# Entry
Amino acid sequence: IDDGTLYFNGQPADYDLAFNSYKPIQISGLLSAFGNALLPTLQILGLSLLYLLTGIGIQLLLKKEEDKLRPILAFFLGIASVMLLVLALSITNVRYSNWMLFAWAGIFLIAATIKLLVKRKELESLKDQVTTLTWQDGLIASGFLLLLLVRIAQTDQLHVPSWMDAIFHANLIEGFVEQGQIPANLNYHFGYHLLTFLKIEIFDWNIPTAMLMTGQWLNVLLSLGLFSFIERRFKNRNLAILSVLLFSLFAIFPA
# Structure
């Protein structure tokens, strides 16, 4: 810091900075925190649904007739495919635009729909899988939605960049925003930064807000991945639920 200006790598930070120590949410501020978290939670859910639909389209195109649709896998497939899309655009020096995301999802969904119409047996198998869903599946899905809301509420009145490491990541994300793609001179892993950049483009969030929201969203994805791994590895849904509860509720931490 020189004469009241904060410098990073010799360059002045040209975005608003606010520093604050974390204070636990008080009972009096709970309603306000959850109220403020409602809109960004719905926005993130909408984007997550788009990722899920994209992944379902990909999975339907790749799976064999006897294979079951796996929604959690489809969700992660959708996220990975969008990241690959932006990577391909960056390699060809094409600036990302939001219409490309919707076109990308549409391509896979249309192709998957055509396949289901041609192969009726796969369509019937998909219908059978949907009809076998139970109230437990709905309860588990609701639990993850509640977890996302809680995680977003934890960011209420938090400020970023909070320390030098956060300033470094904010500067990297700023490069994504300015160029509309993965910076050509980037020599750092960029998964978090790319996903944050996409939220900035779609929701018109500022960098600090997008950093907080993406971090909490990814935290929920860890719980989702843990649930899927435990359930498939040990064939025990109750154990998977218990593991997620221990990981998500007894290890709560802010962004």
Observations:
- The chain is about 70% helix and 0% strand.
